[in-house]
Specification:
elongated; 6 helices; alpha/beta; four-stranded mixed sheet; 60s Ribosomal Protein L30, Chain: A
Length: 229
Protein backbone atom coordinates (compact mmCIF):
# COMPACT_ATOMS: atom_id res chain seq x y z
CA UNK A 1 0.00 0.00 0.00
CA UNK A 2 1.28 3.45 -0.85
CA UNK A 3 2.16 5.89 1.91
CA UNK A 4 -0.82 7.63 3.49
CA UNK A 5 -3.57 5.50 2.01
CA UNK A 6 -6.81 4.70 3.78
CA UNK A 7 -9.02 1.71 3.09
CA UNK A 8 -12.65 0.61 3.17
CA UNK A 9 -13.71 -3.05 3.35
CA UNK A 10 -16.93 -4.30 1.76
CA UNK A 11 -18.06 -7.83 2.74
CA UNK A 12 -20.02 -10.10 0.40
CA UNK A 13 -22.49 -12.93 0.93
CA UNK A 14 -21.31 -16.46 0.20
CA UNK A 15 -20.78 -17.08 -3.54
CA UNK A 16 -22.06 -13.59 -4.42
CA UNK A 17 -20.55 -10.75 -6.41
CA UNK A 18 -23.59 -8.47 -6.08
CA UNK A 19 -23.63 -5.31 -4.00
CA UNK A 20 -26.62 -4.85 -1.71
CA UNK A 21 -28.43 -1.53 -1.37
CA UNK A 22 -26.78 -1.11 2.04
CA UNK A 23 -23.32 -1.77 0.62
CA UNK A 24 -23.90 0.72 -2.17
CA UNK A 25 -24.99 3.29 0.41
CA UNK A 26 -21.84 2.65 2.48
CA UNK A 27 -19.64 3.20 -0.56
CA UNK A 28 -21.46 6.40 -1.49
CA UNK A 29 -21.38 7.87 2.02
CA UNK A 30 -17.86 6.87 3.08
CA UNK A 31 -15.96 7.01 -0.20
CA UNK A 32 -17.52 9.64 -2.42
CA UNK A 33 -17.69 12.05 0.50
CA UNK A 34 -14.18 11.48 1.82
CA UNK A 35 -11.98 10.11 -0.97
CA UNK A 36 -9.87 12.23 -3.30
CA UNK A 37 -8.74 9.26 -5.39
CA UNK A 38 -9.24 5.48 -5.45
CA UNK A 39 -5.91 3.74 -6.06
CA UNK A 40 -6.76 0.06 -5.99
CA UNK A 41 -9.68 -2.32 -5.52
CA UNK A 42 -8.87 -5.90 -4.49
CA UNK A 43 -11.35 -8.76 -4.24
CA UNK A 44 -10.97 -12.00 -2.26
CA UNK A 45 -12.99 -15.13 -1.47
CA UNK A 46 -13.02 -17.79 1.21
CA UNK A 47 -11.33 -21.17 0.66
CA UNK A 48 -14.51 -23.12 -0.03
CA UNK A 49 -14.88 -24.49 -3.55
CA UNK A 50 -12.86 -24.63 -6.74
CA UNK A 51 -9.66 -22.58 -6.87
CA UNK A 52 -10.20 -21.26 -10.41
CA UNK A 53 -13.84 -20.41 -9.69
CA UNK A 54 -12.79 -18.47 -6.60
CA UNK A 55 -10.19 -16.57 -8.60
CA UNK A 56 -12.88 -15.50 -11.06
CA UNK A 57 -15.31 -14.65 -8.23
CA UNK A 58 -12.75 -12.41 -6.54
CA UNK A 59 -12.29 -10.47 -9.80
CA UNK A 60 -16.06 -10.13 -10.27
CA UNK A 61 -16.42 -8.75 -6.75
CA UNK A 62 -13.74 -6.15 -7.38
CA UNK A 63 -15.34 -5.22 -10.70
CA UNK A 64 -18.75 -4.78 -9.05
CA UNK A 65 -17.30 -2.12 -6.76
CA UNK A 66 -15.35 -0.49 -9.60
CA UNK A 67 -18.39 -0.24 -11.89
CA UNK A 68 -20.46 1.39 -9.13
CA UNK A 69 -17.77 3.99 -8.44
CA UNK A 70 -17.18 4.56 -12.14
CA UNK A 71 -20.90 5.22 -12.66
CA UNK A 72 -21.00 7.72 -9.80
CA UNK A 73 -17.69 9.57 -10.31
CA UNK A 74 -15.43 8.34 -13.14
CA UNK A 75 -12.57 10.68 -12.23
CA UNK A 76 -12.18 9.14 -8.78
CA UNK A 77 -11.25 5.73 -10.24
CA UNK A 78 -9.07 6.99 -13.07
CA UNK A 79 -5.90 4.86 -13.16
CA UNK A 80 -7.32 2.62 -10.44
CA UNK A 81 -5.93 -0.93 -10.30
CA UNK A 82 -8.70 -3.53 -10.11
CA UNK A 83 -7.70 -7.10 -9.26
CA UNK A 84 -8.81 -10.37 -7.74
CA UNK A 85 -6.51 -12.00 -5.21
CA UNK A 86 -8.51 -15.23 -5.24
CA UNK A 87 -9.14 -17.27 -2.14
CA UNK A 88 -7.71 -16.59 1.29
CA UNK A 89 -6.69 -19.58 3.47
CA UNK A 90 -9.73 -19.20 5.72
CA UNK A 91 -13.51 -19.35 5.66
CA UNK A 92 -16.30 -17.00 6.64
CA UNK A 93 -17.22 -13.38 6.10
CA UNK A 94 -13.73 -12.02 6.76
CA UNK A 95 -12.45 -13.65 3.55
CA UNK A 96 -15.40 -12.72 1.32
CA UNK A 97 -14.57 -9.10 0.71
CA UNK A 98 -13.31 -6.25 -1.43
CA UNK A 99 -10.76 -3.81 -0.02
CA UNK A 100 -10.78 -0.33 -1.52
CA UNK A 101 -7.58 1.68 -1.04
CA UNK A 102 -7.92 5.44 -1.36
CA UNK A 103 -6.46 8.82 -0.53
CA UNK A 104 -8.59 10.89 1.81
CA UNK A 105 -9.47 14.44 0.80
CA UNK A 106 -7.29 17.16 2.29
CA UNK A 107 -10.40 18.93 3.57
CA UNK A 108 -11.43 15.84 5.55
CA UNK A 109 -7.94 15.48 7.06
CA UNK A 110 -7.78 19.15 8.02
CA UNK A 111 -11.20 19.18 9.65
CA UNK A 112 -10.20 16.20 11.76
CA UNK A 113 -6.76 17.57 12.62
CA UNK A 114 -5.25 19.14 15.75
CA UNK A 115 -2.95 22.12 16.11
CA UNK A 116 0.56 21.02 15.12
CA UNK A 117 -0.55 18.16 12.86
CA UNK A 118 1.22 17.74 9.52
CA UNK A 119 -0.79 16.73 6.46
CA UNK A 120 0.73 15.74 3.15
CA UNK A 121 -0.80 17.27 0.02
CA UNK A 122 -1.59 14.07 -1.84
CA UNK A 123 -1.61 13.97 -5.63
CA UNK A 124 0.75 16.94 -5.75
CA UNK A 125 3.74 15.29 -7.41
CA UNK A 126 6.69 17.15 -8.89
CA UNK A 127 8.97 16.42 -11.79
CA UNK A 128 12.47 15.50 -10.51
CA UNK A 129 14.59 18.60 -9.87
CA UNK A 130 11.76 20.97 -10.77
CA UNK A 131 8.77 22.91 -9.51
CA UNK A 132 6.81 21.61 -12.51
CA UNK A 133 3.96 19.33 -11.52
CA UNK A 134 3.51 15.91 -13.08
CA UNK A 135 0.46 15.51 -15.35
CA UNK A 136 -2.89 15.34 -13.51
CA UNK A 137 -1.17 16.29 -10.27
CA UNK A 138 -3.01 19.31 -8.91
CA UNK A 139 -5.95 17.50 -7.36
CA UNK A 140 -5.33 18.53 -3.76
CA UNK A 141 -4.96 22.27 -4.42
CA UNK A 142 -8.64 23.07 -5.12
CA UNK A 143 -9.62 20.99 -2.08
CA UNK A 144 -7.12 22.89 0.08
CA UNK A 145 -8.45 26.20 -1.24
CA UNK A 146 -12.01 25.15 -0.49
CA UNK A 147 -11.30 24.27 3.13
CA UNK A 148 -9.32 27.50 3.63
CA UNK A 149 -12.44 29.37 2.43
CA UNK A 150 -14.76 27.31 4.65
CA UNK A 151 -12.57 27.75 7.76
CA UNK A 152 -11.64 31.47 7.91
CA UNK A 153 -9.64 31.09 11.16
CA UNK A 154 -7.47 28.29 9.76
CA UNK A 155 -3.78 29.19 9.51
CA UNK A 156 -1.16 26.90 8.00
CA UNK A 157 2.55 26.58 7.36
CA UNK A 158 3.37 25.18 3.91
CA UNK A 159 6.49 22.99 4.01
CA UNK A 160 8.43 21.75 0.98
CA UNK A 161 10.72 18.72 0.77
CA UNK A 162 12.96 17.17 -1.87
CA UNK A 163 14.25 13.67 -2.52
CA UNK A 164 17.53 12.06 -3.44
CA UNK A 165 20.04 14.67 -2.28
CA UNK A 166 21.02 15.98 1.12
CA UNK A 167 21.79 19.40 -0.43
CA UNK A 168 19.20 21.89 -1.61
CA UNK A 169 21.47 24.55 -3.05
CA UNK A 170 18.79 25.77 -5.47
CA UNK A 171 16.23 26.02 -2.65
CA UNK A 172 13.92 23.76 -4.64
CA UNK A 173 12.00 22.69 -1.55
CA UNK A 174 11.26 26.34 -0.74
CA UNK A 175 10.12 26.99 -4.32
CA UNK A 176 7.74 24.03 -4.18
CA UNK A 177 6.19 25.32 -0.97
CA UNK A 178 5.89 28.80 -2.49
CA UNK A 179 4.02 27.34 -5.47
CA UNK A 180 1.23 26.29 -3.09
CA UNK A 181 1.40 29.61 -1.21
CA UNK A 182 1.09 31.58 -4.46
CA UNK A 183 -1.87 29.46 -5.60
CA UNK A 184 -3.80 30.18 -2.39
CA UNK A 185 -3.00 33.92 -2.37
CA UNK A 186 -3.87 34.25 -6.05
CA UNK A 187 -7.25 32.69 -5.30
CA UNK A 188 -8.13 35.09 -2.50
CA UNK A 189 -6.65 33.63 0.71
CA UNK A 190 -5.16 36.28 3.00
CA UNK A 191 -1.38 35.91 3.06
CA UNK A 192 -1.45 36.56 6.82
CA UNK A 193 -2.97 33.09 7.25
CA UNK A 194 -0.06 31.45 5.42
CA UNK A 195 3.66 30.92 5.74
CA UNK A 196 6.04 28.74 3.76
CA UNK A 197 9.46 27.18 4.18
CA UNK A 198 11.70 24.56 2.63
CA UNK A 199 13.45 21.73 4.47
CA UNK A 200 15.49 20.27 1.62
CA UNK A 201 16.02 16.55 2.19
CA UNK A 202 16.42 16.84 5.96
CA UNK A 203 13.01 15.30 6.79
CA UNK A 204 12.48 12.39 4.40
CA UNK A 205 9.64 9.89 4.72
CA UNK A 206 11.98 7.19 3.39
CA UNK A 207 15.70 7.11 4.34
CA UNK A 208 18.21 8.39 1.81
CA UNK A 209 19.20 7.10 -0.62
CA UNK A 210 15.74 5.90 -1.60
CA UNK A 211 15.35 2.32 -2.75
CA UNK A 212 13.10 3.02 -5.73
CA UNK A 213 11.31 5.68 -7.76
CA UNK A 214 8.15 5.47 -5.63
CA UNK A 215 10.13 6.34 -2.47
CA UNK A 216 11.70 9.28 -4.31
CA UNK A 217 8.27 10.47 -5.41
CA UNK A 218 6.96 10.34 -1.85
CA UNK A 219 9.98 12.20 -0.47
CA UNK A 220 9.62 15.12 -2.90
CA UNK A 221 6.43 16.47 -1.41
CA UNK A 222 4.67 19.43 0.14
CA UNK A 223 3.02 19.20 3.55
CA UNK A 224 0.99 21.66 5.55
CA UNK A 225 1.27 22.15 9.30
CA UNK A 226 -1.84 23.29 11.19
CA UNK A 227 -1.00 26.48 13.11
CA UNK A 228 -4.48 27.46 14.28
CA UNK A 229 -8.11 26.58 13.57
Amino acid sequence: MAFGQDSLVIYFLFDSDKLSTQQESTIKLKLLKNAAQIHSIKGTTDSIGNFLYNQDLSVRRANSVFHLLDSLNPSIVKDCNVSGVGELPKQGKSARKVVIYYQEKISVKIKGSKIGDKIRLNNLNFQPGSTALMPNSTGSLPDLLKVMEEMPTLKISIEGHICCDSNDVTQLSLARAKLVYDYLVKNGIDAKRLSYKGFGATRPIHPLPELNENEQKENRRVEIRILSK
